[in-house]
Amino acid sequence: MLQLFHDLIAFFEDSGLADNIRENDLLFPLIESIHVVAICLVVGSILFVDLRLLGLASVHRAVSRVASGILALTWTAFAVALASGGLLFISNATKYLANPYFVAKLLLIAAAGVNMMIFHGISAKDMTQWEDKARLPLRARLAGGLSILLWIAVVACGRWIGFTMQVH
Amino acid sequence: MFDVALKQFCDWLAATALSHTIQAVSWIIPTVQTIHILSVAVLFTAAVLVDLRVWRLLDRDVPVADVARRFLPPIWPIVLVLLITGSLLIIGEPRRSLLNSTFYLKMALLAVALALTAILQWSLSSAPKMPNKKAMWRVEQLAAAASILVWSGILFAGRWIAYTQAG
Q1: Cross-chain residue pair A155–B41, CB shorter than 8 Å
Q2: Which of A49-63, A79-93, A99-113 has the lowest mean pLDDT?
Q3: ipTM of the complex
């Protein structure tokens, strides 16, 4: 199983595409810039929803309406961040996997995803009863607070990857 | 002439106590950069949300003035945070940006983006009182499209500073 994973990583890392991203002076910063734009939209839009959950912003709008206005942007940007991040990753897959901040970043994104699923699947089941209120139940505020902390940590790890790995 | 003065200024700045501290303590620059990027994330998203609303791509159930009032005013204090964190980064590594044309491109784009934000904020919040609303809406759409492009350009330039620094 682990062998298969390593073969798969090697396959992508040795591909012509990965080689191009590695060697071309323009391609890497270009993809990186797209990644930064996408990440900013993902983190910024999620932060706005989190601030609503915490009762710090948009308190006069119901949670579901704040979220529905923003989440289309979040998911579009997330898809772009994933695609551009994937391209950066395959250009130096082995080095990235050996970088603790890269691994931590992936785990933190996964944790943010689990936090979101717990909120939508369990905590927000009876959301229609409280989503209009400025001050939300503790479980909603916890989900928002945790989400903010996790995404700040994701951005910090992303920045630290650049200082602990010299690929360019 | 100006070149020499700028280089001397960079060397003077790099020799200050504050610059020495920023250079010597390894976690300061990545931490300040993280705060800088998080601020950019909030500011950029706020601007884009308003721009998309002007183009009627989201939140159509609320008046555009409400969306503008919710998201545009917070941009100004965030710009202040960006100026402070950005200045700290410059003090830590003056030559990285001050001798880098990409940095000046970024600052020029910032001036345009802030002007567009001010125009949109003024226009959107006073929209109902305007006599020729239709024409104004066209201007607002143009300003909104330009806003997305210029802010994106600023983010690109920010990343590019790392690749175009001298020496």
Answers
A1: yes
A2: A49-63
A3: 0.92
